[in-house]
Amino acid sequence: MEKTALGFCPGHISGYFCPVRGPDLKLAGSIGAGLVINEGVTVTVAPDIRPNVEIERTGARGEVIERILRSPPIEYAMDRLGIAASVGTRCRLPISAGFGLSAAALIATVSALNRCFSLGMSPGECFELAHETEVAGMTGLGDVAACQGGGIDCRESVGISGRITRLPPPPLPVYAVTFGPLPSPGILGSGTAMDQVVKAFPARCPTSIEEFFTLSRKFADESGLITSDVRHALARCDREGIAASMTMIGNGIFAYGRRAETVLSGFGEVFELKVVPIDGRWCTESPRISGGMDE
């Protein structure tokens, strides 16, 4: 058993998705397409007499700007493993804003717990528990499966063993702005909202970053999920000829192109995000530096 263990996992922006019910949590979740991004969650774990979780969001200079005590999903995962630990998570992106941070935190935490307690779990078993926890808590449906690799992901069947097609990262960064939290459980648990999502879902994979944004925007417009703040920002991007859509599910917008950062800067703090390479496992023993992935 290690005294402490570290972990990292990238985040994920979902452009469009469709919920899928299954006979159990392993075979439930969602299909759809998204981007695996360099910003994610770093985790430190150590054995403790009881579960103890602290979530910190940091600013550009590393200062703590938000602190949350407790995390039911992480506590659920520890209970399933039959262990107790002190877990500290850190992220720079806003929480509950459509960046897949709950999935990233779960993957990084389960992987670190596996090393800390010498549990002998395979990477697939770590992903499986993280996926089960996400679906059980309605904090996400397909982000865990997406984060097993990088690139532009298209999840064609459900679960971590499902079929996933990946395109390489686009040449330019993606830029994002958020207008506040939009907690996933309330939306994912709404039958009415999910019926509209199913109707809006484009049942095909993108062949380029441009097509990804086209499909994502069509889905956003038809899903009924767009908030007034997001619609206002999307209208500005439309006028400027910028490819953009809503972060799913979050009260925010992400855009692509050389002028995207300038256009979005009028709506708040802009986050520059790079899509990570397809190859390689992004859950590592040591957290990455510079707010995400190594350059």
Which structural class do you get from the secondary structure elements? alpha+beta
Helix content: 25-40%
Number of domains: 1
Count the strands?
11
Basic shape: globular
CATH topology: Ribosomal Protein S5, domain 2
Could you tell me how far the N terminus lies from the C terminus, measured between alpha carbons in angstroms? 32 Å
Could you explain how this protein is built, in words?
The chain has 295 residues and is an alpha+beta fold. The protein has a single domain, classed as Ribosomal Protein S5, domain 2. Helices cover 32% and strands 27% of the residues. It contains nine helices and eleven strands. It has helices at residues 72-81, 101-116, 123-137, 143-146, 184-188, 191-200, 209-223, 228-240, 260-264; strands spanning 5-20, 29-47, 52-58, 64-69, 85-91, 152-155, 164-167, 174-178, 243-246, 252-256, 271-273. The strands form two sheets. Strands 1, 2, 3, 4, 5, 6 and 7 form a seven-stranded mixed sheet that branches. The chain has a four-stranded antiparallel sheet with strand order 9-10-8-11. Helix 1 (72-81) packs across helix 3, helix 2 packs across helix 3 (123-137) and helix 6 packs across helix 7 (209-223). The longest helix is centred in the middle third of the chain and has 16 residues, at 101-116. The radius of gyration is 18 Å and the shape is globular.
